[in-house]
Amino acid sequence: MRIETGEVEEIRRGWVKIKLGGSSFCDECKLCSNRGDEKILEIPDTGSLQVGDKVKLSMPEGKMAVFSLLSFGLPLLFLLAGAVLGFSFFKQEGLQALSALGMLIIGVFIAMGISRSKWKKTVSKVEIIEVARK
Protein backbone atom coordinates (compact mmCIF):
# COMPACT_ATOMS: atom_id res chain seq x y z
CA MET A 1 0.00 0.00 0.00
CA ARG A 2 1.11 3.51 -0.79
CA ILE A 3 0.41 6.54 1.41
CA GLU A 4 -0.85 9.77 -0.25
CA THR A 5 -2.03 13.07 1.18
CA GLY A 6 -4.71 15.34 -0.18
CA GLU A 7 -7.49 17.79 0.52
CA VAL A 8 -11.24 17.19 0.27
CA GLU A 9 -12.41 19.37 -2.60
CA GLU A 10 -16.06 18.40 -3.03
CA ILE A 11 -18.68 16.05 -1.59
CA ARG A 12 -21.58 15.18 -3.88
CA ARG A 13 -24.03 12.30 -4.38
CA GLY A 14 -22.21 9.82 -2.17
CA TRP A 15 -18.75 10.54 -3.58
CA VAL A 16 -15.85 12.57 -2.23
CA LYS A 17 -13.40 14.33 -4.56
CA ILE A 18 -9.92 14.57 -3.08
CA LYS A 19 -7.21 16.73 -4.65
CA LEU A 20 -3.95 14.86 -4.18
CA GLY A 21 -0.49 16.32 -3.82
CA GLY A 22 1.05 14.54 -6.83
CA SER A 23 3.87 12.14 -6.11
CA SER A 24 6.21 10.31 -8.47
CA PHE A 25 3.82 7.35 -8.46
CA CYS A 26 0.84 9.41 -9.60
CA ASP A 27 1.71 9.31 -13.30
CA GLU A 28 1.80 5.51 -13.29
CA CYS A 29 -1.29 4.59 -11.27
CA LYS A 30 -4.19 6.14 -13.26
CA LEU A 31 -6.71 5.77 -10.43
CA CYS A 32 -7.15 9.54 -10.43
CA SER A 33 -8.50 11.82 -13.10
CA ASN A 34 -6.17 14.56 -14.30
CA ARG A 35 -7.03 18.26 -14.42
CA GLY A 36 -3.84 19.80 -15.66
CA ASP A 37 -1.28 19.29 -12.91
CA GLU A 38 -3.95 18.38 -10.34
CA LYS A 39 -4.75 14.77 -9.50
CA ILE A 40 -8.35 14.19 -8.41
CA LEU A 41 -9.39 10.94 -6.75
CA GLU A 42 -13.06 10.09 -6.21
CA ILE A 43 -13.87 7.68 -3.41
CA PRO A 44 -17.16 6.66 -1.77
CA ASP A 45 -18.32 9.04 0.96
CA THR A 46 -18.05 7.62 4.48
CA GLY A 47 -19.96 10.57 5.94
CA SER A 48 -17.06 11.65 8.13
CA LEU A 49 -15.37 14.13 5.78
CA GLN A 50 -15.96 17.84 5.18
CA VAL A 51 -14.80 20.10 2.38
CA GLY A 52 -11.32 21.44 3.18
CA ASP A 53 -10.26 18.51 5.37
CA LYS A 54 -6.68 17.32 4.91
CA VAL A 55 -6.59 13.54 4.56
CA LYS A 56 -3.97 10.82 4.48
CA LEU A 57 -4.92 7.87 2.27
CA SER A 58 -3.69 4.32 1.91
CA MET A 59 -3.84 3.32 -1.78
CA PRO A 60 -3.19 -0.05 -3.46
CA GLU A 61 -0.14 -0.28 -5.71
CA GLY A 62 0.53 -2.19 -8.89
CA LYS A 63 -2.76 -1.67 -10.73
CA MET A 64 -1.17 0.03 -13.76
CA ALA A 65 -0.19 -3.23 -15.46
CA VAL A 66 -3.66 -4.71 -15.03
CA PHE A 67 -5.41 -1.64 -16.47
CA SER A 68 -2.94 -1.41 -19.37
CA LEU A 69 -3.35 -5.08 -20.23
CA LEU A 70 -7.12 -4.80 -20.16
CA SER A 71 -7.23 -1.51 -22.04
CA PHE A 72 -4.89 -2.45 -24.87
CA GLY A 73 -4.30 -6.20 -24.82
CA LEU A 74 -7.88 -7.41 -24.92
CA PRO A 75 -8.97 -5.26 -27.90
CA LEU A 76 -5.77 -6.23 -29.74
CA LEU A 77 -6.52 -9.89 -29.14
CA PHE A 78 -10.05 -9.43 -30.49
CA LEU A 79 -8.69 -7.55 -33.52
CA LEU A 80 -6.34 -10.41 -34.35
CA ALA A 81 -9.10 -12.98 -33.83
CA GLY A 82 -11.39 -10.99 -36.12
CA ALA A 83 -8.69 -10.82 -38.79
CA VAL A 84 -8.10 -14.57 -38.64
CA LEU A 85 -11.83 -15.35 -38.70
CA GLY A 86 -12.42 -12.87 -41.52
CA PHE A 87 -9.61 -14.38 -43.56
CA SER A 88 -10.98 -17.88 -42.92
CA PHE A 89 -14.60 -17.18 -43.85
CA PHE A 90 -14.50 -14.39 -46.45
CA LYS A 91 -12.71 -14.03 -49.77
CA GLN A 92 -13.27 -10.29 -50.17
CA GLU A 93 -10.76 -8.07 -48.42
CA GLY A 94 -13.45 -5.58 -47.42
CA LEU A 95 -15.36 -8.22 -45.48
CA GLN A 96 -12.14 -9.46 -43.89
CA ALA A 97 -11.35 -5.93 -42.70
CA LEU A 98 -14.91 -5.42 -41.52
CA SER A 99 -14.71 -8.64 -39.52
CA ALA A 100 -11.50 -7.47 -37.83
CA LEU A 101 -12.98 -4.02 -37.13
CA GLY A 102 -16.16 -5.53 -35.67
CA MET A 103 -14.20 -7.77 -33.35
CA LEU A 104 -12.01 -4.82 -32.31
CA ILE A 105 -15.11 -2.84 -31.33
CA ILE A 106 -16.46 -5.79 -29.36
CA GLY A 107 -13.07 -6.12 -27.60
CA VAL A 108 -13.05 -2.43 -26.68
CA PHE A 109 -16.51 -2.63 -25.10
CA ILE A 110 -15.62 -5.78 -23.16
CA ALA A 111 -12.37 -4.16 -21.95
CA MET A 112 -14.26 -1.04 -20.86
CA GLY A 113 -16.74 -3.11 -18.86
CA ILE A 114 -14.04 -5.15 -17.15
CA SER A 115 -11.90 -2.05 -16.45
CA ARG A 116 -14.83 -0.26 -14.82
CA SER A 117 -15.55 -3.14 -12.48
CA LYS A 118 -11.85 -3.51 -11.60
CA TRP A 119 -11.63 0.27 -11.05
CA LYS A 120 -14.55 0.20 -8.62
CA LYS A 121 -12.94 -2.66 -6.68
CA THR A 122 -9.62 -0.80 -6.56
CA VAL A 123 -11.18 2.49 -5.43
CA SER A 124 -13.08 0.65 -2.70
CA LYS A 125 -9.68 -0.45 -1.30
CA VAL A 126 -8.56 3.15 -0.75
CA GLU A 127 -8.64 3.75 3.00
CA ILE A 128 -8.65 7.02 4.92
CA ILE A 129 -5.92 6.75 7.54
CA GLU A 130 -5.99 10.22 9.05
CA VAL A 131 -8.17 13.33 8.86
CA ALA A 132 -7.14 16.83 9.87
CA ARG A 133 -10.05 19.27 10.10
CA LYS A 134 -9.60 22.66 8.53
Q: What do you see in this structure?
A:
The chain is α+β, with helices and mostly antiparallel strands. The protein has three helices and six strands. The protein has helices at about 25-30, 65-90, 95-125, and strands at about 1-10, 15-20, 35, 40-45, 55-60, 125-130. A six-stranded antiparallel sheet has the order 3-4-2-1-5-6, with no helix packed on it. Helix 2 runs antiparallel to helix 3 (about 95-125). The longest helix is centred in the last third of the chain and has 31 residues, at about 95-125. The radius of gyration is 20 Å and the shape is elongated. The two termini are about 25 Å apart.
Q: What secondary-structure arrangement, pairings included, does this model have?
A:
Layout: E1 2-12, E2 15-20, H1 26-29, E3 33-35, E4 38-44, E5 54-59, H2 64-89, H3 93-123, E6 127-132
Antiparallel strand pairs: 1-2, 1-5, 2-4, 3-4, 5-6
Helix pairs in contact: 2-3
Summarize the structure.
This protein is of the alpha+beta class and 134 residues long.
Largest sheet: 6 strands, antiparallel
Structural domain count = 2
Shape: elongated
- The chain-level structural class is alpha+beta
Rg from alpha-carbon coordinates: 20 Å
- Model regions low in confidence, pLDDT < 50 over at least 5 residues: none
The CATH C-level class name of the largest domain? Mainly Beta
Strand order of the largest sheet: 3-4-2-1-5-6
Mean pLDDT: 80
The CATH topology assignment of the largest domain is OB fold (Dihydrolipoamide Acetyltransferase, E2P)
Number of helices: 3
Distance between the termini: 26 Å
Q: Count the E strands.
A: 6
SSE order: EEHEEEHHE
Roughly what fraction of the amino acids lie in strands?
A: 25-35%
CATH architecture of the largest domain: Beta Barrel
Helix content: 40-55%
